[in-house]
Amino acid sequence: MKQVISSVQLNYNYMFYAINQEYIQHPVFKWNSQVISQFRLKPNNLEERLERINFGPLKKSILELELLLNELYLLVENHYPEVVLENTNSS
């Protein structure tokens, strides 16, 4: 299950880089947290939340991933209204 969480988190990273119009060489490189800290568009406390997802209890990690996904959808809807998101629960 932790592998699934890591895969989901990696996909979130791709999306955060995209909405911030940042080039990503590789989403798991060691400076990722420094780059994320400079993102203009991100949920509150993203770095700390990602850390908790990586090292926290499984159930809490899954719940946090769900919250982050909803927040990510809201960011996309607010800043990129031309992007159509399907099957979202944020509206």
Q: Residue ranges: pLDDT <50 for 5 or more in a row?
A: none
First-last Cα distance: 29 Å
What is the C-alpha radius of gyration, as a whole number of Å?
A: 13 Å
Apparent shape: globular
- Estimate what percentage of residues fall within beta strands: under 5%
What percent of the residues sit in helical stretches (DSSP H or I)?
55-70%
Note the total helix count.
4
* Succession of helices and strands: HHHH
Provide the number of structural domains. Answer: 1
Number of strand elements: 0
Tell me about this structure.
- The protein is mainly α and 91 residues long.
- The protein has one domain (2-79).
- Helices cover 62% and strands 0% of the residues.
- It has four helices and no strands.
Write the layout of secondary structure elements.
Blueprint: H1 2-19, H2 32-37, H3 46-55, H4 58-79
Can you give me a brief rundown of this structure?
The protein has 91 residues and is mainly α.
Notable features of this structure?
single chain; 91 residues; mainly alpha
